[in-house]
Amino acid sequence: xxxxxxxxxxxxxxxxxxxxxxxxxxxxxxxxxxxxxxxxxxxxxxxxxxxxxxxxxxxxxxxxxxxxxxxxxxxxxxxxxxxxxxxxxxxxxxxxxxxxxxxxxxxxxxxxxxxxxxxxxxxxxxxxxxxxxxxxxxxxxxxxxxxxxxxxxxxxxxxxxxxxxxxxxxxxxxxxxxxxxxxxxxxxxxxxxxxxxxxxxxxxxxx
Length: 207
Hints:
The protein has about 210 residues and is an alpha+beta fold. Helices cover about 30% and strands about 35% of the residues. The protein is elongated and about 65 Å long.
């Protein structure tokens, strides 16, 4: 089902209307949910947007048409954009990711995000096997982050060797030469990379 947005001129104002009432309801629900997630009252949002509390209340309850100028003010205050606010997934099956593991070089990886994801980061679960020596240290732009699900991880960071135990996390600049290996026994970690870091790790451990 495709949604269509229409613009109309009413009382000298440009307004946004949707031919899909479900989309309009979704937009209003998202506006309210984002406000509540930030812990803001209607009074606080009114202060940040210079809009009246009654105006905001009518927008959230569907009793007022949302003007484009008002929508832009709300998006700016709620730290989002109109595109994200109006985005509709047409296939709910794409919500669930069924990771397919791949193994190489003593490392098994389960991708937890899609490679074509519009997000700026990629997540994966790794299972590391102990090796006789650390990986060759890598250097690339960005930051790496991992959380140890089980075991202990040996993080070589420049001239430092850091043991990261189960339940601990590590975050570091990847412009410092680094390597990640299991310490003494197998370990599992949850990783989050930006796309540059993900690509660098794939080059070092192709699957």
